[in-house]
TrEMBL record, chains A, B:
<feature type="domain" description="CoA-binding">
    <location>
        <begin position="7"/>
        <end position="100"/>
    </location>
</feature>
<keyword id="KW-0067">ATP-binding</keyword>
<protein>
    <recommendedName>
        <fullName>acetate--CoA ligase (ADP-forming)</fullName>
        <ecNumber>6.2.1.13</ecNumber>
    </recommendedName>
</protein>
<dbReference type="InterPro" id="IPR003781">
    <property type="entry name" value="CoA-bd"/>
</dbReference>
<dbReference type="InterPro" id="IPR043938">
    <property type="entry name" value="Ligase_CoA_dom"/>
</dbReference>
<dbReference type="InterPro" id="IPR014089">
    <property type="entry name" value="AcCoA-synth-alpha"/>
</dbReference>
<dbReference type="Pfam" id="PF13607">
    <property type="entry name" value="Succ_CoA_lig"/>
</dbReference>
<dbReference type="Pfam" id="PF13380">
    <property type="entry name" value="CoA_binding_2"/>
</dbReference>
<dbReference type="InterPro" id="IPR016102">
    <property type="entry name" value="Succinyl-CoA_synth-like"/>
</dbReference>
<dbReference type="InterPro" id="IPR036291">
    <property type="entry name" value="NAD(P)-bd_dom_sf"/>
</dbReference>
<dbReference type="InterPro" id="IPR051538">
    <property type="entry name" value="Acyl-CoA_Synth/Transferase"/>
</dbReference>
<keyword id="KW-0547">Nucleotide-binding</keyword>
<dbReference type="InterPro" id="IPR032875">
    <property type="entry name" value="Succ_CoA_lig_flav_dom"/>
</dbReference>
<dbReference type="GO" id="GO:0005524">
    <property type="term" value="F:ATP binding"/>
</dbReference>
<dbReference type="InterPro" id="IPR013815">
    <property type="entry name" value="ATP_grasp_subdomain_1"/>
</dbReference>
<dbReference type="GO" id="GO:0043758">
    <property type="term" value="F:acetate-CoA ligase (ADP-forming) activity"/>
</dbReference>
<dbReference type="Pfam" id="PF19045">
    <property type="entry name" value="Ligase_CoA_2"/>
</dbReference>
Length: 697, 697
């Protein structure tokens, strides 16, 4: 999409469908624009001479110099109006009108046409089926909400317009301001990626917030978000999380929600901070907007009471933060300046009779400690004056470069002190756990900001051979990978057991002679799914029995299924399963995120315990390593219970090579290497299943 | 403890240490009592003639008819004063003074003496080191807080006095009232169990809340709470949850915090609703105080917007509630009365232009549906008037017997409507997830209230033989159970493999002949821990090799450790491990809850994946069954991956028999049956380790 600068700072705005009719959306939009917008407002309405005292034009084509148009006409004529606007040179348009993709096939067709018009004219189109756009820096509220936004540096996009109405009503009450607000609607043209890219370059935006029910293009989102979060944090509530929620999402917005596993992997890979609730969304936004990032993960707690100190310590334990270990000088200084009964270890207890200046002494000491990255000040209303304490906190926040949160544990007394610390961006909550969690979001962003995303390795593979193998499957009537499976892995450099697929007895014997030790023999037929059940697999076959076993296997298969297309017998080296650990590397395609690579331990671990982890491909070396770290059963690969640690590098490389394979070939719809046997000396893919999309070939 | 009636409704209260001195605790207590308490206040102070215009007495012994005394004198004279009070017949006393168990050995000795005095005189003693007691129904604030409590039906105990100060300050701002408030302090005499029992019988208490850092006597707590929660819900924040938190708890209050696993099991067994945060504590309390319990687990959502509907549905997915499936008549009625574009399926979307009466129609229909147990009304500020909607909600809550929560998603507009629904106990939160969570607490309590706790089975065991076996270990120098282990299990009816421990070759052969098939032979020595490593275990020994194997094992052991005390060789039936699944049944003693019985799958499952579950003994049949349900690896016992399901009843019975054994013998400090092999035909305890406390024998 083009530059969105003008969308948020137009000098002349047209309202197509402007009216004074009571209850009409076109009236609300006019009223909101006329209330504070610095530029020109141009009403477009063929049936009116003027609207709210402004000359009304019959068509957008009659007006010059319109930067941005808001469309509120009935759905049937929206596309006509859009073409006129395109002709008139308007390049930024918000379509508020509903009745498109969300409302059946006729609407979907209209939305497709809209997309084409937007493309033809290069229109940055917001919506349709949305609430509009707000840009507080120019006083523009181009929506039909009843409340507008306070000025601030949070830019907010939402896939639910009703949620924007709610947030605006609520945020003005909580003194939370916004830079831009966008209602995404059906995302026919502009989507979340366009806005994060715009806000990432926008110096007025300090934090990007999103309420999203789906993400249109997962991989693009990941790549953009990784760039943007180098400078600007992104916090997202992804709604429609649970199965039940997802079904509501798709029935409502027509969005096909991707699976939770894909979003979990994708948002993490994108460097997005995920809020689990609306409360967290704004808690995180406020602290990210207002405070510096911590130098390290250690937090100091300063409190005037034991109980609240314990609560805060619990919250630290639940977070990614660590309780700071104070330096010796810190302890000495605290010992010197605090009363004897005070606890000088973290959490520091300055005692119930502490006035604000004792807090100040303690804060000065702990914030000087290089081990302390952030601090929370917790106070129960005993003898302390919360306003005095708030002054101290505000001062310290300015004096030191560490983020501070507060928990002034009271009602009215706390409210009365809130404005003092609000001004310096220090949040206060009754529950100290909320403050700790907010500081933890700063820690998380600080980690994201400094992440050096490694690029997926480009292994030297035989892509042409892989293509030929996949094309060969087209000739067959099944979409399963069969005889070609091992060759495909071989083309992408993934170790497989020695062996061959043969179609006569002598070839079987010759193949077995090439292999050291006894062999495994398996029927190869796309029509026989459960090979073992019909006696189609024999293990531990000595070379002298290969010929007779060949006959046995073939005749059992024919017996079992006379019409089966039997391609031959696979003669394979015996994998030393006892010496190794069975793992699974798999892939499924997610509608939003594309190829999702899975890793887990074989057998019960993935199948019963669901101990598996996912990444959106392409998967880099670092990500593949993280995948191993993430599974609960990882110790089994690392020498638990007296085993020898397996070749983790081999596993990591296989994950990456599979990632490369499924990225190179979108025709591979799903794939499982099960098991990939990992031993101390390497890995070997013993079996693979894959489904190929013939249409794509 | 005695009846606590008088503690909360005294007619005459003495303040021992009453004073007018600025900043003194004795002054604050006097001021608080004089502000609203209906009864007599008697100041005791040998150095004053009067305090706040009331005649001051030299000693409590000079005054008649005192029901309740508050003690604020220095710690050194507290016990003297207590004896005087005891002599004077005062039976309810709160000791606010600090300087006891929490402050070193001198204080601990004082606290012990205090306990003895209380016992001698039968004093119901609150504290020491506490804030005091509040009873709103008689206007009594016998604490030194700056704020008192509003009247209500929540009774609240807290192990942190500072937290009470904070809650009182906050709650008056949030219109939350209390019946009684108690600061538990060091719990020298009265503890959480005394108060839940008292409030359980108190008709003025609708909900019991607790902030606890530890529980003194876990089993007693479980038994009392189970009784009380038949009538009155108990909601607890257990602080000091994480390792870091627990260390803060013990450094502060001298409490030895039990492990989180023990509290998790114990609170669940007690039927206590556990709040994870202070916010949850009061969210749950408010809704439990104000609303009826749901008839079933299904919830209806009625909203005016899709996005908030999705958020609410997500929250239902995260809870123990289910999305209600509407009856056909409900869908028909909704279809008839709602606009065409409305979504009549759950979540019901009454559309953005819905006025309050459309909500009313929808609520009337869904609340009539017998499938619907509870409802949440979610509204974004579009055209709706929140006050009108609040009126509708309040009316419906009165009309139907179902609990309702609201999410009026706004700021000032929502605050302005809050009082209307507050009055009927309907909470409203900006985040619909909080409302859903609160309704889920009602569902949880409804389940707790109707739980029929089964009594632990009293199996017919040979307790005398077990005692003798345990006593025999006393003669040895190790506290590990050795040669006697299998006998002990046998005495408690737990199946063990056939076999015997023998100390000569011929006996070994004789023993092997008694056993069908090959045998396992293991060295028996309390000094040899890793039997396999030194060649002390031979499996699959045919009877003809038993004699020579006996010699081999003995000589290897002597060779390895010449000074080892070798008791013999165990000759045991081969357990058919392949046909069975290895499980572990174990026990550890928790300082608060006593014997904690563990169950999990053997090998990696408990040791690497920590997939285990716990219950405080005695464990009933129902609880033992639940334990199997709770582990992630349960499917492996139930036929996953083509296995035959094992004899679950045998596992359940073994858990119970172990529970009985460790309850009968506190001398058993810890115990592991590992593995208990479970097959389709039964279970067999193949190996056991136990540690015995010789002191207790």
């Amino acid at each position: 999409m083009g530059n969105l600068e003008t969308l948020f700072s137009p000098e002349r705005v047209a309202v197509i469908g402007a009216t004074e009719s009571e209850g009409a959306v076109g009236r609300s939009v006019m009223e909101n624009l006329l209330d504070g917008y610095e530029g020109d407002v141009v009403p477009i309405n063929p049936n009116a001479d003027e609207v709210f005292g402004l000359e009304a034009h019959e068509s957008i084509t009659d007006v010059d110099g319109v930067d941005f148009a808001v469309v509120v006409v009935p759905p049937q004529i929206v596309n006509t109006v859009l073409e006129e606007a395109g002709e008139a040179g308007v390049r930024d348009i918000a379509v508020i009108t509903a009745g498109f993709g969300e409302s059946g096939s006729e609407g979907a067709a209209r939305e497709q046409e809209m997309r084409e018009i937007a493309e033809e004219y290069g229109i940055n189109l917001v919506g349709p089926n949305c609430l509009g756009v707000i840009s507080t820096s120019i006083g523009m509220n181009a929506t039909f909400t009843t409340k507008s936004a306070l000025e601030g540096s949070i830019s907010f996009m939402s896939q639910s317009g009703a949620f924007i109405s709610a947030v605006l009503d609520w945020s003005s009450d909580h003194n939370i301001g916004f830079n831009d607000v966008v209602s995404l609607g059906n995302k026919a043209v502009l989507d979340e990626v366009d806005f994060i890219e715009h806000w990432g370059d926008d110096p007025s935006t300090d934090v990007i917030l999103g309420y999203l029910e789906d993400i249109e293009n997962g991989r693009e989102f990941i790549d953009s978000a990784r760039e943007v979060t180098k400078e600007t944090p992104i916090v997202v509530v992804k709604s429609g999380r649970t199965e039940a929620g997802a079904s509501a999402a798709s029935s409502h917005t027509g969005a096909i929600a991707g699976s939770e596993r894909a979003y979990e992997a994708g948002l993490k890979q994108a460097g997005v901070i995920r809020a689990e609730s609306v409360q967290e969304l704004f808690d995180y936004a406020s602290i990210l907007e207002g405070q510096p990032l911590p130098d390290n993960d250690e937090i100091a707690i300063v409190t005037n009471a034991g109980g609240p100190g314990v609560m805060s310590t619990d919250a630290v334990g639940d977070s990614g933060l660590q309780m700071a270990s104070f330096a010796d000088e810190t302890l000495e200084a605290l010992e010197e300046s605090m009363p004897e009964e005070a606890n000088i270890f973290n959490p520091v207890d300055v005692l119930g009779d502490a006035p604000a200046d004792r807090y100040e002494q303690a804060l000065d000491i702990v914030l000087e400690d290089p081990n302390v990255g952030s601090a929370i000040v917790v106070a129960s209303p005993q003898t302390i004056d919360f306003r005095d304490l708030a002054e101290v906190i505000a001062e310290k926040q300015q004096e030191y470069d560490a983020p501070i949160a507060a928990s002034l544990m009271g009602g009215e007394t706390a409210r009365n002190a809130k404005d003092i610390i609000d001004e310096v961006g220090v949040p206060t909550y009754f529950d100290p756990a909320r403050g700790v969690k907010s500081l933890d979001a700063l820690r998380e962003y600080s980690e994201i900001k400094t992440t050096d995303y490694d690029v997926a390795t480009d292994f030297d593979v035989d892509r042409e051979r892989a293509r030929e193998i996949l094309e060969r499957t087209k000739e067959r009537e099944t979409n399963k990978l069969g005889i070609e499976a091992m060759d495909l892995l071989d083309a992408y450099g993934i170790p497989t057991p020695d062996g061959a697929i043969v179609s006569d007895k002598q070839a079987a014997v010759d193949a077995a002679k090439e292999i050291e030790g006894n062999v495994v023999m398996k029927i190869v037929s796309p029509d026989i799914l459960h090979k073992s059940d019909i006696g189609g697999v024999e293990v531990n076959v000595p070379v002298e029995e290969v010929a007779s076993t060949y006959d046995d296997i073939i005749s059992r298969a024919r017996n079992y299924q006379p019409d089966a297309n039997i391609l031959g017998v696979q003669v394979q080296e015996m994998a030393d399963l006892d010496a190794g650990t069975e793992t699974i590397v798999g892939m499924n395609r997610d509608p939003q995120f594309g190829p999702l690579v899975m890793f887990g331990l074989g057998g019960i671990f993935v199948e019963v315990l669901e101990d598996a982890t996912f990444r959106v491909a392409p998967v880099s070396e670092g990500e593949a390593s993280e995948m191993i770290d993430e599974i609960d059963s990882a110790p089994l690969l690392r020498g638990a219970r007296g085993r020898d640690p397996v070749d983790e590098d081999g596993v990591v490389e296989t994950i990456q090579r599979i990632s490369q394979l499924v990225t190179d070939f979108p025709q591979i719809l799903e794939l499982d290497i099960n098991p990939l046997v990992a031993t101390p000396d390497g890995v070997e893919a013993v079996d693979i299943r894959a489904t190929i999309d013939h249409e794509e070939l």
